[in-house]
Amino acid sequence: MTTTAATVAPRDSTADAPTSVARLNESIHGFIERWGSVWVEGEVTSWNVRGGHVFGRLKDATGDAHIGFRVWATTRRRLGADLKVGDHVVLCVKADYFVKTGEFGFTVSTYRHVGLGEQLERLERLRAQLRAEGLFDPSRRKPLPFLPHCIGLITGEKSDAERDIHRNAELRWPHVRFRTIHAAVQGDRCVPENLAALAKLDADPDVDVIIIARGGGDPQTLLGFSDERLVRAVAAASTPIVSAIGHENDHPLLDDVADLRASTPTDAAKRVVPDVAEQRALVAECRSRMLRVLTQRIRHDQERLEHVRSRPVLRSPETMIASRAQELQLLVDRGRDATDRRLQTGGRQLGELRATLRALAPGATLARGYAIAHLADGTILRSAAQAPAGAELTVTVEHGSVGAVSTGEVAESAGP
What we know:
Layout: H1 21-33, E1 37-50, E2 53-59, E3 66-71, H2 73-79, E4 88-98, E5 103-113, H3 116-132, E6 150-155, H4 160-172, E7 177-182, H5 190-202, E8 209-213, H6 228-236, E9 241-244, H7 253-257, E10 260-261, H8 265-272, H9 276-309, H10 312-315, H11 317-360, H12 362-367, E11 372-375, E12 392-397, E13 400-405
Parallel strand pairs: 3-5, 6-7, 6-8, 8-9, 9-10
Antiparallel strand pairs: 1-2, 1-4, 2-3, 4-5, 11-12, 12-13
Helix pairs in contact: 4-8, 5-6
C-alpha cells in the first residue's frame, strides 16, 4: 500500500514517506494559532500606508531583533492617531501564518505609546497647578492688535503650518509682514528652540503679535508644548501670543496660557489678520451711513430754518419796528416831561435852600451892624469875662477885621 504525502504528518515524515507542503503549513498554522495575542515593546522603524493598511517594522531596544507587523485599515480607523518612525510603543500583536504562501507575520489589534498614561497624569497635575496660580485666568490675556504690521511666527521649517499661515494671511491682507523663526516642533530640541525663538521675537519692538504653530499630532508629539518652562515663558511674554499647535481635539497647556487659542494654523491667520475685503466693505458701509445721517441732519436743519424764516417777524421785520415806533415815541415824550418837571421842582428847592442859607449865614448878621470878637487863640468871645484887661482881641465886622485890647471893664447888658 502506497502512502501519499498528504496523509503523512510532518512529525512522521521520512525520505520515503515525505509530508506535503500544505500539510506542513497547516501544522505550522495550527501551532502558531495556539500562541494567542502577545504584547511586545519596541521602537517603530517603518510605518508605510498602502491602501489604508499599514505595513511596518518594530525593533528591540537592543537593536538586534526586528519583527514586521500589519495594521488593517479597520483597526487603524478605530485607533485614530497614527504612529511614526521613532515612536517608542507597545503593540498587541497576534501571529499569523498563511497556509497558501507559507508567509509569517504579526497583525496589530491595538497600540499605545510607552509611558503616555503617566505623562498625561503629570500633565494634568501641572495644569491644575498653573490654573491655581492664575496663569489661565482670562483677565490676564492681552488683546490682539487690530492690524499687526509685523507678525512673529515660530514653526517647523518647510512645514504645512507655515505655508497655511502665510497663504491665508496674505490673501486677507497682502501687505502683512512676517518675522519667522524655525524651531523643532517635537523631540528633545523642541522646548529649548521654541524658548529661544520666543525670547528673540518678544524682544523685537517691531513684532506686534507672535504665532506658535505646529498643525496637530498625537499626544506624545505635542508634549513639548506642555513643558512648564515654555508655558511660563509664554505667560510672561509682553507680546500677545497665539497658540496654533493642535487641531480641535488637541489640547496642550500652551493653549490655556496663550492670549488666543486657534484651532488650526489657518484659523490663526484668520484670527490675527483682518480681511481687507471685509474692511473695505465695512468702510464703505460706514461712509454710506455717515452720508445718510449727514443728509438727514442737513435736511432737518434746513426745514427748521425755513420754519423760522416763515414766521411774520422774520418775513417782514420792519413791521415789528413800525409797531413799536409809536410806543417808543410815547415813552420818550413821557421821559422828557418827567425830566422837565423834576428839574423845575429841583430849581425851586435849590432857591429855597439858598435863601435859608443866606439868612443863617454870619455875613448877614454882620451886615446888620453886628461884630464878632476873637481871642488871640481864635476862640470866639461870648462873655466879657473871657477878655480880662490887656487881652488882645480881633474884631470882625462886615467888611474886614480890626485889632483891639480889652480894658477889663464889664458893661451891663442892654438886654434884647
